[in-house]
Amino acid sequence: MDSTTIIQIAAGIVFLAVLVVYISFLASLSSALGKCSRISRTMEPGLVWLMLIPLFNLIWQFLVVIALSNSLRNEFRARGVSNIEPEPGKSIGIALSICAACGIVPFVNFVAFPVQLILLVVYWSKIAGFSRMLDQVPAPNVTAPYTPQDLPPNMPFAQPGTVWAPPPPNLDTRRRVPVFVWILVGFAGFIPIVAILMLIAIPTVGSLKKKANDLSAQQAIRAIHEAEIQYQSTYPSSGFACTLPALGGQPASGAPSPVAAQVLQDDLASGYKSGYIFTLTCKDEVTVSGTDRFVSYTVTAVPQTVGKTGDRGFCSDEGGAISFDPAGGTNCTERLVP
Fold first, then answer.
1. Whole domain around residue 110: which residue ranges?
2. Among 43, 54, 143, 257, which has the highest number of CB atoms less than 10 A from its own CB?
3. Are residues 241 and 322 in the same domain?
């Protein structure tokens, strides 16, 4: 098992561990909301799970923190619990949400991430404490049916006989915003963020792609050099191969030969790979016993589209050293430092 595979497995394990912890965190928030009576909570517990949506959760987490704080405040008042924060967990939750949002900003995330972890533990602990407090304090016993004059003007109409009790003093009984409105608000803020991130990411992705193609071209030239050395050793009467197809070939097509030596991958033998065009030509030729033998070669690699698939052109010969042309052509005047 190579180091790349080990790193990938380790990264997968870390990702799964983080996902499990985050799901447990969301389950704790949802549970706390679920312990609040319907008249107290300003958000349904199931809506907490929208925080699993990438990027969208950068906005939604603020709404969850505020709704959870208001719901807990209402429920504590309804149960007559005193000496509780005026807005339970709100300040820590907002700070946590800000750090999470800053986590997508390059360089800032190095500072925001450790602070976010600390705030996550503190906020999770607070909400878990409030949840345990709700378990210890019994909910008010609501048994008396309402009468029409008891129904506040902002309460939805219910059929006669519905069991209802007037809210306690200072309980926030503002009409709940429908779920679809919250979702629309979330997406309204989500779309501009995605647009901004795309504007930032597109140039970065293009630059990274060019760098990857650049490195791939260098590795390909080294692979061609190794294939040429192997070809010369296998077919000394021919010397170096003069075309890339002569270095390529499929075992299924027959045994190796000077015109298809099967010492180079087919994708590279075709002359096109990772946004670069490769050209192989022979230079010096000698005649030994009536047979022409090539003793030197030149290989070049140029971007298919300069500035888009790559910026530099590369050249090499039988010596194996690589030089490059900053303009993307074959005027390779600068030596590549390994």
1. 3-176
2. 43
3. yes
